[in-house]
Specification:
- The chain has 420 residues and is of the alpha/beta class.
- The protein has helices spanning 20-30, 63-79, 136-143, 188-200, 240-246, 258-261, 317-324, 339-342, and strands spanning 2-5, 34-38, 88-95, 99-100, 103-111, 113-116, 132-135, 154-159, 173-174, 186-187, 218-219, 225-227, 253-255, 271-272, 275-276, 306-307, 391-394, 401-405, 418-419.
- Strands 2, 3, 4, 5, 8 and 18 form a six-stranded mixed beta sheet that branches. Strands 11-7-6-1-17 form a five-stranded mixed beta sheet. It has a two-stranded parallel sheet with strand order 9-10.
- Helix 2 (63-79) links the parallel strand 2 (34-38) and strand 3 (88-95).
- Helix 2 crosses helix 4 (188-200).
- The longest helix has 17 residues, at 63-79.
- It is globular.
- 51% of the residues are buried.
Length: 420
């Protein structure tokens, strides 16, 4: 078993026929618990005692508690949709980070360790792929216990100075939980929501300078990447030199996961050959390339490389989690999945909106799913692969995805998205 530190299964869905209260309690029992661990010192960050006026459902009375409430809210959004028996801990801090008048590092987050070839003790998950790195939170879900009990699974750090003095003064954090901070405030819940996804596994461990795989092995995210028209097409099958070329291969670097494929037809832009494009600019953008959807994706997605406004919806990020191995809990009717009530996109016109539908391109109003694998019977497709055993690898800041603001952030420019 190897633990290492470094720079598809199909979803689980519950039959709609279950009584709503039973369904709700069943989902709650499976949902992951994501705990924010306050790593700030006295009087700073989450412990800042400056007075705070309640806003947007955040009823804190101090600035530090307001920040912590926003972090916790973002963590609950992910926890409600991922299946794990193992508590996921996030070491979190609010610290002054690099910034200037028109520039700021907003924050960074990533898994502390990655793991491979571990035994799976959770019958719900089954065996992981052999010889493949997984973010530790996902590895623990497969294993059914915490394989790195003395370490948090994720580390996150965000800029406490944003909007203060000369640190990007045109911008500031919005700490409400409702996503209604407006154009001139950066929604902390959205930013933490985005970054937690990286820590949970929405990250490639390819060396962006050399194209090399981590210790010469695949990772669960990179296994789903392909280069349209490449030879070979799968990044996992390429040489380092081929992989290095592929990660600057926009618009041909795409996501080839089966769970996500069902949702791609709902996109009006950002597709190549029916697959969603990944962020692959030339030259490479370190900490941003590969581990995001293309900025050209429309409608906007949570996991684009640029901040494009408050977004508390997972969108394609949830089926991507499913593709890399997470078992996921879909939104229920009580979460607003009926198109007649929400007015949201419903491509197959079956009454269930695309982001909830277990087969969004084929009408299936009953959401039938005989094998309870998360893909509707109308869209049944192939599963992921198989077995064996090893240890966790220790990561660090190189594995973090940085969020940066640049240029004229805070000035409304509909044609320009702000860099994370």
């Amino acid at each position: 078993m190897r633990s290492r530190s470094v720079s598809g299964r199909n979803a689980l869905v519950f039959a709609v026929a279950l009584p709503s209260l039973l369904l709700q309690s069943f989902e709650q029992a499976l949902a992951a618990s994501i705990i924010i661990v306050n790593k700030d010192g006295p009087g700073e960050g989450f412990n800042d005692s400056s007075p705070f006026t309640a806003v947007g459902d955040n009823v804190a009375t101090t600035l530090g508690q307001a920040r912590l409430n926003a972090f916790t809210h973002a963590a609950k959004l992910w926890g409600a949709r991922l299946v794990s028996q193992v508590e996921i801990k996030v070491d979190a801090q609010m610290n002054p980070l690099d910034c200037g008048l028109n520039y700021a590092v907003i924050g960074n987050a990533g898994p502390n360790t990655v793991d491979r070839d571990f035994p799976s003790n959770d019958a719900t998950y089954g065996p992981p792929r052999a010889n493949t790195w997984y973010a530790q939170a996902l590895a623990n879900a497969f294993a059914g216990f915490d394989r790195t009990a003395t370490l948090a699974e994720i580390s996150a750090e965000f800029n406490s100075s944003l909007g203060v003095g000369t640190c990007a003064p045109a911008s500031s954090w919005y700490l409400g939980l409702d996503g209604r901070g407006g154009s001139f405030k950066l929604d902390l819940v959205s930013v933490v929501f985005h970054e937690l996804a990286h820590g949970l596994g929405f990250s490639s461990f390819i060396d962006e300078s050399t194209g090399a795989r981590l210790s010469g092995r695949d990772d669960a995210f990179t296994n789903r990447l392909m280069l349209e028209g490449g030879s070979p097409t799968a990044l996992s099958a390429m040489t380092d030199a081929q992989r290095l070329a592929a990660i600057v291969g926009d618009p041909n670097l795409t996501w080839a996961g089966p769970a996500t494929a069902a949702y791609v037809p709902a996109l009006s832009a950002g597709r190549t050959n029916g697959r969603v494009r990944m962020h692959a600019p030339n030259p490479v953008e370190f900490g941003s390339s590969v581990g995001h959807f293309s900025a050209d994706v429309s409608p906007n997605e949570l996991m684009e490389p640029y901040y494009n406004g408050a977004n508390h919806k997972m969108g394609l990020a949830l089926p991507v989690m499913n593709d890399i191995g997470w078992l996921v809990i879909p939104a229920t009717v009580s979460d607003g999945c009926l198109s007649g009530l929400t007015g949201a996109s419903d491509v197959d016109a079956d009454g269930v909106i695309d982001t909830c539908d277990n087969c969004p391109a084929v009408s299936n109003p009953l959401q039938s799913d005989a094998d309870a694998n998360g893909r509707g019977d109308a869209c049944q497709g192939a599963n992921v692969a198989s077995v064996p055993a090893a240890t966790p690898l220790h990561l660090g800041l190189l594995a973090s995805a940085l969020l940066v603001l640049g240029g004229a952030f805070g000035i409304p420019q509909p044609s320009r998205k702000q860099h994370q």
